[in-house]
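Why show two proteins at once? Because comparison is the fastest way to build intuition. When a single record is shown, students tend to memorize it. When two are placed side by side, the eye starts asking what differs. So, the first record is below.
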Amino acid sequence: MKTLIVFYNGRCDICGPEVDLYRRMAETNGITGLKFKDISTGRLPTGFARDDMLARLHAEEAGDMLVGVQAFIALWLRLPKFKYLAYLINWPIMRGMTGLIYNHIIAPWLYRRYLRAQCNV
């Protein structure tokens, strides 16, 4: 498999620990070709705005930027305990439904929650 770079919001109190779980799982299983980049600070990939990237999980594979459910599928396919979930969600009808749920409910809620937490700091 090609290298997958996962861009995530390390300051989100839900997203950060979730990605840490994925990172530990990759290390424990000796999975190579999987990198994680916290984009809450520092440089971003060229052509991308911080707010857009913080609002949804992004992953880059072979020069292609995957967003939302597609990024999760690419990540989970590399992790033994999540591989079957990735296959299930990758079925066309499931991918469409999970995409709608993630893009219109989960991701906006997480991002608003993150923004509120940043204002209260």
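Second record. Ask yourself what differs from the first in the token line.
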Amino acid sequence: MQPDQLRELFRMQQALNERIGVNTAGMGEEEKTRWLLNYTRAMQQELAELTDSVPWKWWAKYQKFDEQNARVEVVDLFHFLISMAQVLGMSADDVFAAYIKKNEVNFKRQETGYKEKDHADSKHI
């Protein structure tokens, strides 16, 4: 039987983080803040690297789309995103449940034209 893929990614990321010396379980608020900032900054860098995988310089003719590298950068983003979820105490099941709820909110926003921000529509997530 194949393992649940999202749960397996979370398990693998926790093992990698622990190998690196980062134990996301039981962090205090100060440590959570530090690691959320670390992971956010790392994700910003990975996004920059992903951006560099596509020819975004309209004035430069030498650029080529590097799809293989773009795929690697997307996977790098998952590493840090899963780590952030773990810092916040979220399991794969928590992320899945929150995604389902947020997806419903996003569909409702589209149905109503999303003309105005409702700060309360995501409070239940």
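One difference worth noting in the second protein: The chain is about 65% helix and 0% strand.
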